[in-house]
Amino acid sequence: MATLRLPLTFIYDTSGPVLQSFALNMSSLSLTLTFNEPVDVASFNVSGITLRGGRNVSTPALLYQLQSSVPQVGQGNVVLITISSGDLNGILSRSAIATSVANTYLSVSQGAVVDVTYMRNPAQTIPSTSALQVGTFVSNTIPPALTAFDLDLNSNLLTLVFSEPVVVSRVNLTLLTVLSAPNSALFRQITGGVVQATPYSASAVVSFVLNNADATFLKQQVALGNECHEHVPRCGDWDDHRHRQSLQCCFLVSFSLDMNTGQVGLTFSDAVNIATFDVTSVSLQGTKWRVATQWYSLTSNSYTLSSSGFTATVFVGGTDLNRVKQIRPLAKNASSSYLTASAMLAQGFNGLNLVAVVDGKALLASSYVPDTTSPSLSNFTLDMNTGQLFLTFSEVVDILTLNASQISLQGSLSSSRPRPLTGFLSVVPSDADYRFAVQLTSANLNSIKQDPTLATSVSNTFITIGDGYRS
């Protein structure tokens, strides 16, 4: 019979377990840790494990601390951790870690796990400076799927929800098509947008501000923009899709004024329905607060040829443009060019009127081009019975600058004997300061009559005019 003896001395195991290697499988979502001795899996704290893109890295984009992954229950020196969906998204959102052996490292902090001995020794830490490189790595071979989307026409925001984080910069909006129903003939292929910032280079939720052309199209199509029909992608099935109709009134953001071409450019906060556009709702004024005789409202003489959208160009008609030019303190430079507009100017595709631009809050032109085109003589009529010369100019001119000495009559196009006028008895505007009745002096009229080669018919009545007037 064997004799039992007690040891003379007993030394407890005080050495904590050491992580010797690990393997990461991004397809099966498993992290395998191999220690030099058995550990108590029930004591495992996954937040003690941090995946890193390299040794001694501290940038948030290059590391991820596990939060909710689950270790297998049991005891042994090999621990299998199932990566949770939350941790998977956290890892994948950092596109510079865990994509290959080269950027997959692991560090262990205090309290990650203990051994199974009486002393319950904690595992030895592995600092970032000595991070352990992965031994076996299997990359993620399961492609992400688009699971849901949200279309908000208040903010023109398209939000895509994927089954896992995707590299935001690689999302190609032009491969998406919005339809009013499955297999519908009414659709819009997205042409582009501006991505909204995300915390990391990859994200499971990606939002884009649609470009103006796409937003306008979606809003002006009844089945795509103004009714809450389902929007289904052409490329596959979507589990969830939501649409929020634009319920906000759009407003005038800015305007430009070109006095050379007679154009007013309008920029809106949202797409407007051009069918509701009323140019007579626009007024130009010389100051923010309207001053009597220093403002003008456009009439039906002006018009637009623009399509529905975020911008519209108003072509100021000849009559309106001349009236604006007649008002001396109005639209002579950028600082004297203000605009007001009533709510009837236009409607959005939600049927709501524009927010009015009221007097006192008039918009100052964001861009101004002065009138640098000199007026020209369009036609003239000479009445030898009354001695009146009727002059019609291309635009309004300043009657006070009309200089008789710059006007000559001659009997042919190439006459070498032009007869300059020496003065006027009177100059009377007959229509909006661009058509004048000039009463010739008796001396001028008699001088013309004495010349048998001049002004006896239409064929020998010509006029030349120099720099004898100003706009």
Structure description:
This protein is mainly beta. The chain contains 5 helices and 34 strands. The chain has helices at 85-92, 212-220, 222-226, 318-326, 442-449; strands spanning 19-25, 30-40, 49-52, 63-65, 70-71, 75-82, 105-108, 132-133, 136-138, 146-152, 157-167, 177-179, 187-189, 193-195, 202-210, 232-233, 240-244, 252-258, 263-273, 282-285, 295-297, 303-304, 309-315, 338-341, 347-348, 363-364, 367-369, 377-383, 388-393, 407-410, 419-420, 424-431, 435-440, 462-465. Strands 18, 19, 22, 23, 25 and 27 form a 6-stranded mixed β-sheet that branches. Strands 5-6-2-1-9 form a 5-stranded mixed β-sheet, with no helix packed on it. Strands 14-15-11-10-17 form a 5-stranded mixed β-sheet.
How would you concisely characterize the structure shown here?
With 471 residues, this protein is mainly β. Helices cover 8% and strands 36% of the residues.
Quantity of strands, as a count: 34
Provide the helix percentage: under 10%
Distance between the termini: 132 Å
Beta percentage is 35-45%
Characterize the overall form: rod-shaped
State the oligomer.
Answer: single chain
Question: What structural class is derived from the secondary structure elements?
Answer: mainly beta
Question: What count of helical segments does DSSP give?
Answer: 5
Low-confidence regions: 225-241
Sheet with most strands: 6 strands, mixed
Q: Averaged pLDDT, please? A: 85
